[in-house]
Amino acid sequence: MLYVVMIFLWMAILLYLLLGGADFGAGILELFTSYPNKSKTRKTMYRAIGPVWEANHMWLIITIVILFVGFPNIYTTMSVYVHIPLVLMLLGIIARGTAFTFRHYDAVKDDMQKVYNKIFVYSSFITPLFLGIIAGSTVARRIDTEASNFLDAYVFSWLHWFSITVGLFTVAICGFLAAIFIIGQTENLEERIRFIRKAKTFNIAAILCGGLVFLASLYEKIPLLDWVFGNSVGITAFSLATVSVVILWNLWNTDKTNLMRVLAGFQITMILLITTWKHYPNIILLKNGSSLSLLEEQGNAKTIDALAWALIAGSIFILPALVYLIYSFQKPKEKIIS
Amino acid sequence: MNDFIAARSQMALSLGFHIIFSCIGMVMPFFMAVSHYLYLKTNDVSYKNITKAWSKGVAIFFAVGAVSGTVLSFELGLLWPKFMEHAGPIFGMPFSLEGTAFFIEAIALGFFLYGWDRFNKWFHWFTGVIVGVSGLLSGVLVVAANAWMNTPAGFDYVDGKYINIDPLAAMFNDAWFSQALHMSIAAFAATGFAVAGIHALMILRKQNVAFHAKSFKIAAVFGTIAAVMQPLSGDISAKFVGKSQPAKLAAMEAHFHTEKSAPLIIGGIPDVKNQKVDYAIKIPGALSFMAKGNFKAEVTGLDQIPKENQPPIAITHYAFQIMVALGMIMMGIAFAYFIALFKKKSWLKQQWLLKLFVLATPLGFIAVEAGWVVTEVGRQPWIINGVMRTKDAVTPMPGIQYSFYLFSAVYFSLAVIVVFMLYRQIKMVPQLYDKTNP
Ligand code: HDD
Ligand code: HEM
Ligand code: HEM
């Protein structure tokens, strides 16, 4: 049953990265849209993510619940040593979720809209940035459970070039996912061309940021190259991802929007696979060389069984409903709801 | 402010904030389901407009409830890592089920808010009901986790180790039933009175009277029925607390000396040093009756509890008094409303009844906050009753007070914005939902 729980954990992280990522990305796109097109971008985007945004963020909750029920040590180690970026990410989540809702539901549309917009776009940038920083810091071997001063224990555990570049990479991926997702939702050619251009830009940005992550890893002496190219799974996944980027770049002028989405999703899946495979089952690598492993930190066997059953039962309810939700609001209908 | 106090304050702030939004998230969908149903049955558009107007408000509350809940699920670890390290696997069961309930709620909400005229109308109505049911379910589940902190179960604590963990036994702990019942009814009472009060105010101001009268009635009926049930379920809670957590009951009642035929103390100022309560009304034997169902029974006083295991007495006592007093007031208003509905229809037209409801707008929520103070402060100094002390659970990270200030500022601004937006929603009723304005 431990494996069932681990699969759910991995899937929840992946789905949060894909769906939550596309959701954050919508705000990032808005941030990088030039002024005259902002309100159009906003409209298209709202139609695409309005009905699903709450659901998209549930994957984060599922991830956290799996961690604290199943692997309490991992959850508490992160809570203690990456406390600061977690708090910043939470502030981002608060700001973003509320600003998104407020700007749509405020009964009077006046200057407050500008305030909501600002908060929304900046927090859409900040939140995935810190998510990436947190993710990067789990594998950077900087978390020092024996540190004796504040900076070493609570700041340098996450503040280093590697995690910052991972953060930027995450932001770029989110923008890319959002652009690809929204291409299929656009209603006219002009819009479509705009979003294709954005998708291209963000794909290039993601590749550049990926390069920065490698540079940072060399600088911080993190064996990222070995994780990616030192094993056959890593090499295969990297090659497949590269091939899918090439295919994607040949599709821009076709109407195969669903295939584009699949390819983009595939690329992200491969990236997550590469970064988790090599040090599986360890998910937190500590400074003293030891690691917290999913296999060793399981809280309690009976709890894991119960958790696995709860997750299985839950997904029987959730998945069909979720698929139907996303499907229902896929195609733009004439009747756009107030 | 030291880190320990800061951590407790931040936890209390976050929960006290979240609980308001979660009560509304649990209850409003039922109000909407009723008015939506009336619309589908009678084709009276004003019910459709009421549903839509409410659903906008609810969407706002929902978003705030969802983000503040997300913050909570991290805060448990950010502030109380030692607690979560041990408690996570034991009381995690309700949280993992709750995850499912939240998810279903979020999905159903997507259908409901964005589904007007898109789906079969009864399917659309049904998704609204699902929002309510899964919200209520998640509330009941999360209370199971809190009840476990009051009456820990499902593990053996031997030599500082937590062994023989049984997550199901932990979930079905003793306090769950009474707490979940009391909490669910409280959510209906608090939300019902708050919503009814706002609509009553608009009726008194003679704005969109027909619209607000219909809304008022739905909310008032839910709220008053709950308000009558609340003291009954509170009595169940008090009896249970008397049995399972004598220290908490003693603090609630500022009951210093163990005695038979213990008096019920109403009001008064506890004088902890001299172990007495000044200026209080004492009803002889009533505490024995409340706690044990027998006017002569013996009730444990604080003298039987070692000093280091006593909760803060004054706060617990005042909070309990506030909750009970407000409960009685709300019950009184509820009876007046029932009389008006069934016996004296003329009262319904009179201003004083509406004015009472306006005055009662915040009472339910104040009682909810007070009740949680009773439960949480009354459990101190334990985070897991009798097993782990709160001060042993707190995070080693220094500087928590800054995080507390930060969250206070954020929650304060959010509260201001939400009130501001609500005000705007109501102000826009004539333009958006009820153009006739009779
Ligand atoms: C509308 C809100 C409301 C009202 C009118 C009342 N309560 Fe309450 N009470 C709550 C809302 C609440 C609460 C916020 O929901 C609590 C906190 C924890 C819980 O389970 O419910 C609570 C807790 C709580 C507890 C502590 C339970 C525990 O620690 O396990 C007791 C003994 C009572 N209540 C008793 C009463 C009595 C005798 C009332 C008589 C009128 C009353 N309550 C009215
Ligand atoms: C499942 C639900 C809940 C959980 C898991 C929970 C957990 C906790 C924890 C871990 C603490 C810190 C330790 C302590 O001081 O007791 C705490 C404190 C507190 N919580 Fe709860 N709580 C829950 C429900 C609530 C709710 C809904 C409220 C609403 C107001 C609340 C109010 C408080 C208060 C006032 C304190 C501070 C106690 C003090 O300062 O002495 N709790 N809670
Ligand atoms: C007794 C106290 C609590 C009650 C009654 C309660 C109830 C609820 C309800 C009914 C909702 C959904 C409605 C809404 O979003 O507005 C909600 C949202 C949420 N709550 Fe609480 N809650 C309590 C305490 C907690 C605690 C202690 C946690 C974390 C450990 C928590 C985590 C969440 C989360 C993550 C959400 C967002 C889910 C969503 O997006 O729908 N809640 N809560």
Structure description:
Chain B: It is found in: Cell membrane. Chain B: This is Cytochrome ubiquinol oxidase subunit I. Chain B: Keywords: Cell membrane, Electron transport, Heme, Iron, Membrane, Metal-binding, Transmembrane, Transmembrane helix, Transport. Chain B: It is a multi-pass membrane protein. Chain B: The chain crosses the membrane at residues 15-39, 59-80, 100-116, 123-149, 181-204, 216-233, 318-340, 352-374, 402-423. The complex is a heterodimer of chains A (338) and B (438). Chain A has 338 residues and is mainly alpha-helical. Chain A has one domain (2-329). In chain A, 75% of the residues lie in helices and 2% in strands. Chain A contains 13 helices and 2 strands, in the order ααααααααααααββα. Chain A has helices spanning 2-31, 38-49, 53-70, 72-81, 83-105, 112-139, 150-155, 161-183, 189-219, 224-229, 232-249, 257-277, 301-328, and strands spanning 282-285, 291-293. A two-stranded antiparallel ribbon of chain A has the order 1-2. The longest helix of chain A has 31 residues, at 189-219. The N and C termini of chain A lie far apart (46 Å). The model of chain A is unreliable at 333-338 (pLDDT under 50). Chain B has 438 residues and is mainly α. In chain B, a hairpin with a 3-residue loop joins β9 (382-384) and β10. Chain B has a two-stranded antiparallel ribbon with strand order 1-2. Chain B is globular and about 70 Å long. The model of chain B has no long low-confidence stretch (mean pLDDT 86). Helices cover 71% and strands 6% of the residues of chain B. At the A-B interface, α3, α4, α5, α7 and α13 of A face α2, α3 and α13 of B. The complex binds CIS-heme D hydroxychlorin gamma-spirolactone (HDD) and protoporphyrin IX containing FE (HEM) (2 copies). One protoporphyrin IX containing FE is lined by residues 18-19, 21-22, 25-26, 61-62, 65-66, 69-70, 72-73, 76, 102, 105-106, 135, 138-139, 142-143, 146, 183 of chain B.
